[in-house]
Amino acid sequence: MTEVLFPQLSDEDPDGEGVLATWFVDEGATVAGGDLIAEVMVEKVTGEVRAPASGAIHLTVSEDDVVRQRSVIATIF
Amino acid sequence: MTTTETPATTAPAPTTSGRRLTTAKAMVEGIAQEMERDPSVFYLGEDVGAYGGIFSSTTGLLERFGPERVLDTPISESAFLGLAIGAAVEGMRPIAELMFVDFFGVCMDQLYNHMAKIHYESGGNVRVPMVVTTAVGGGYSDGAQHSQCLWGTFAHLPGMKIVVPSTPYDAKGLMTAAIRDDNPVVYMFHKGVMGLPWMAKNPRATAPVPEEAYEVPIGRAAVVREGHDATVVTVSLSVHHALDVAEELAGDGIDLEVVDLRSLKPLDRETVLTSVAKTGKLLVIDEDYLSYGLSGEIAATVAETDPGLLRSPVRRVAVPDVPIPYARPLEYAVLPTRDRIREAVHQLVRA
After folding, report:
1. Interface of A with B (CB under 8 A)
2. What whole-number distance in Å separates Cα of residue B206 and Cα of residue B198?
3. Which end of chain B has fewer CB atoms < 10 Å from its terminal CB, N or C?
4. ipTM higher than threshold 0.95
5. pLDDT band at residue B17, thresholds of 50, 70 and 90?
């Protein structure tokens, strides 16, 4: 199992929260390493999340959820 | 004729499953694939480099293609659009970004007297294969000088094609077609369809996009919803609003057909006429100003061809001829909102 982390976008506020803006994949979808899977935002800075591994993805947060940077947003089996 | 025709390529049908992208990312992918394929393609404009475009129209291009092909320009629209025109007539394929269409006033001579007329003035000997990208539209309190659409202003002037995508699929396909076209193409993207996380959430701005390059033919509209009770002709963000209203009213037994024009020049009059011939009723929704614009052009198209197609008078929902207000309630009073569209549909189907 590989955990997918919310990227750290803010160096000034590394523990700050961000928003999971868009999931580009559905729950249970098969992803390949490197695929674009989500877009996230901290303040008004956006970042892309790419799959760190290949497999079936389980989304642990929903779109528009507010989560801390570097926390787990999905797992890949 | 100031434009030459490019043969249309057939685009693959949008898939219902598969990889999804936002409109912004689809647009960037279209640009990147053409830059990869053709070394004469380059991008220039304000904040298009490290910033990635203020509406994410160029995210990642600088890192991928370097500063010689992704150029940050000074705030000098007339100069850098002139640069692009010069490069285009010498055989390059520049894409120049006018950050907000509202800023066209400082550079319009370059656009309508040079970019759009060189092909004609040279007796067809000199081509100007360039794209002007520009952000349009309101709805987020950016005031009267940063919220306009103005596509009617551009489409009024001969010599340039105008495309206005509303979906991720069309954003990529029209970008690819625009870059490959040998004529100047103005590519107008509404900030509200880009799928930007910091704008109002728009579920229709994220959708399946094929990974391979493809073209959406310029000058062809799409019937994005089939129906029998009335035809709604529109473009850009208003397509999303029209579809929302159509889905809602389907529950009340009102069956709307929605036509996304996608290109304003050339204008696909045939698709509009075919739809109106079927439904007998026409509503035009336009986020540009009401008078002397797109909505009048569509109405005239029907009236000139066969007014007998209409079983009731044409209705228009557009921005009344006033500046777009900054104050949110006032802004939403003039924009073509779902409420205004719904009311117009009710009046139309009852008529």
Report:
1. 19, 21-22, 24-25, 35-36, 39-41, 44, 46, 64
2. 14
3. N
4. no
5. low
